[in-house]
Amino acid sequence: MSAKWSIIKVLACFLLICSSVGYAQEVKTITIEPRQMFRDTIIITRYDTVWMEKEKVRIDSADISDKRPNRYDRRVHRYRKHWESLIPTHTKLQFAGNMGLISLGTGWDYGKRNQWETDIFFGILPKYQSKRTKITMTLKQNYMPWSIALGKEFSVEPLACGMYLNTVFGNEFWTHEPERYPKGYYGFSSKVRIHIFLGQRLTYDIPPRWRLGARAVTFFYEISTCDLYVVSAFTNKYLKPKDYLSLSFGLKTQLF
């Protein structure tokens, strides 16, 4: 009886092993070779690992690749760069300077060290003894050859120089001498003035945590004169520096 039972146990074990090997082989027959496709979802079975194929994504023009930019890409980049260069980089508020009592303007920084500036201003000239208040416009070119750091947040520009053209809107001002005057009576225009200036600047770099609408704020002053004042100073020896030199103050807000 025990021998018969032992034979039955051996047969049962043999059948179990065969069935297990067959199941494993069956699973392996449906196993997808992982080297032939992307690996995405993993299913762990009792006897083997099955790799499911990743869904293929359609590649279109929005695909990011390591390809070098072609002529079209470079042209678009230049196009956008040129338009972005027209965005003003700062604003300015200036008091006096023979360009109006108060002038508000905007401008652009450029150069390797942003040492060049081009500004355009619109100012208000009170009527004083005239009949009406006037509007002025100024085109200004600035140059700062040096900038000295004073710690982490402050810097000074010991020399700021340049020139600007100023005009006043109104029919009472003229570019060419009116016919009512003898020819050559006035050798200059009353509508356009040419100015030169020298000055200094102090800049405060706003810490990143405090920046709202500006990156830095610059206080500056300038001493200027114009073409008419220079001629008057040479032809009238009695004039003093205060008669042909003007002092102005301003505030620059650096946007970018």
Overview of the molecule:
The chain is α+β, with helices and mostly antiparallel strands. Helix content is 21%, strand content 38%. The chain has 4 helices and 11 strands. The radius of gyration is 40 Å and the shape is globular.
What is the subunit organization of this protein?
A: single chain
Secondary structure: number of strands: 11
Fraction of residues in H or I helices: 10-25%
Uncertain segments:
1-5, 18-47, 56-62
Spatial order of the strands forming the largest sheet: 3-4-5-6-8-9-10-11
Overall body shape: globular
CATH architecture of the domain at 88-254: Beta Barrel
Distance between the termini: 99 Å
* CATH class annotation of the domain at 88-254: Mainly Beta
Count, helices: 4
Rg of Cα set? 40 Å
Largest sheet: 8 strands, antiparallel, barrel
What's the mean pLDDT score?
78
Give the helix/strand class. alpha+beta
Q: What is the helix/strand order?
A: HEEHEEEEEEEEHHE
Strand content bin: 35-45%
Q: What is the compact description of this entry?
A:
The chain has 256 residues and is α+β, with helices and mostly antiparallel strands. It has helices at 2-29, 71-84, 227-235, 241-244, and strands at residues 39-44, 49-53, 90-95, 102-110, 116-125, 134-143, 148-150, 154-168, 192-205, 216-226, 246-254.
Keywords:
disordered N terminus, 11 strands, single chain, globular, alpha+beta, Porin
Please outline the helices and strands:
Elements: H1 2-29, E1 39-44, E2 49-53, H2 71-84, E3 90-95, E4 102-110, E5 116-125, E6 134-143, E7 148-150, E8 154-168, E9 192-205, E10 216-226, H3 227-235, H4 241-244, E11 246-254
Antiparallel strand pairs: 1-2, 3-4, 3-11, 4-5, 5-6, 6-8, 7-8, 8-9, 9-10, 10-11
